[in-house]
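Deliverable D2.4 — example input (structure tokens):
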């Protein structure tokens, strides 16, 4: 089998793996803060043997870099709190499609704070994506305030992960992906742990089924999904992976139909199609313009 075929198979495995993230969350009865905390901390435990070999890189980090790492982890923790919480109130379709607005928020922030160029063709993609988003939100308004609150939480998750990526943009120039992810995951997990303690949420009193789901969230969408994507970046163009990741909401919607019995309305379907097409066009134009690939870190948040 040719190397290109193996990479495409690996890409398909990664998209399928991340698509299961929303399903595991829906299956769980645990609070969003607990789900996010154990997903991150279990991932940290699984990564520790590899990170131990790279510990000298952590010793060389400056005080400013540590401060930025803590800030990045803080917003990643807020991302998990918002997005995972959204799945308690709205459908998998609405939550996943709205979450994919993250790359657009990243580039808006890059334009405002880093003065990165944004071509007018990319703005067309943004407008198409936001039109699709408005259709989904309009549909959820009819379903009641609960679904709309879930939409808000998903958009909050997209915004906070965008801040997390913008902070990490310069850090990733000098810090390897594994070391960066390891430290940020620890900080985000501790942020969620603090939130759970302050909120009075139990940390340990969960049945074996829940612990199995916590572990599955760490292994399937994180290890076989996001970390696999980052390994593939050595061999596959970033734009290929970015566009492939747009298959995550599609995969999650299909899985939700068969495993959760969630149906997609016509308006949700059309809005989701417009949103995904708009984001794909936006990424394609941005890549052609040579703008920095700040969404690469987006892969670790879904």
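Example output (designed residues):
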């Amino acid at each position: 089998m040719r190397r290109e075929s193996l990479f495409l198979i690996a890409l398909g495995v990664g998209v399928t793996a991340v698509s299961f993230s929303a399903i595991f969350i829906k299956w769980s009865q645990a609070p969003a803060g607990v789900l996010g905390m154990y997903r991150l901390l279990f991932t940290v435990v699984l990564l520790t043997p590899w990170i131990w070999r790279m510990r000298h890189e952590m010793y060389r980090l400056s005080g400013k870099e540590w401060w930025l790492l803590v800030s990045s982890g803080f917003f990643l923790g807020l991302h998990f709190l918002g997005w995972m919480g959204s799945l308690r109130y709205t459908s998998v379709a609405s939550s996943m499609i709205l979450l994919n607005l993250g790359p657009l928020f990243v580039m808006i922030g890059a334009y405002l704070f880093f003065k990165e160029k944004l071509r007018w063709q990319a703005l067309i993609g943004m407008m198409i994506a936001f039109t699709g988003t408005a259709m989904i939100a309009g549909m959820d308004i009819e379903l009641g305030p609960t679904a709309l609150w879930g939409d808000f939480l998903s958009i909050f998750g997209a915004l906070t992960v965008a801040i997390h990526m913008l902070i990490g943009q310069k850090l990733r120039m000098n810090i390897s992906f594994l070391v960066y992810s390891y430290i940020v995951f620890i900080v985000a997990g501790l942020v969620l742990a603090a939130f759970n303690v302050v909120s009075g949420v139990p940390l340990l009193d969960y049945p074996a089924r829940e612990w199995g789901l916590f572990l599955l969230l760490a292994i399937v969408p994180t290890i076989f999904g996001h970390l696999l994507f980052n390994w593939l970046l050595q061999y596959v163009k970033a734009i290929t992976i970015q566009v492939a990741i747009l298959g995550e909401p599609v995969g999650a919607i299909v899985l939700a139909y068969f495993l959760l019995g969630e149906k997609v309305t016509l308006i949700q379907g059309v809005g989701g199609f417009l949103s995904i097409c708009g984001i794909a066009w936006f990424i394609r134009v941005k890549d052609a313009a040579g703008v920095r690939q700040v969404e690469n870190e987006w892969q670790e948040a879904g």
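The first helix runs from residue 3 to 27.
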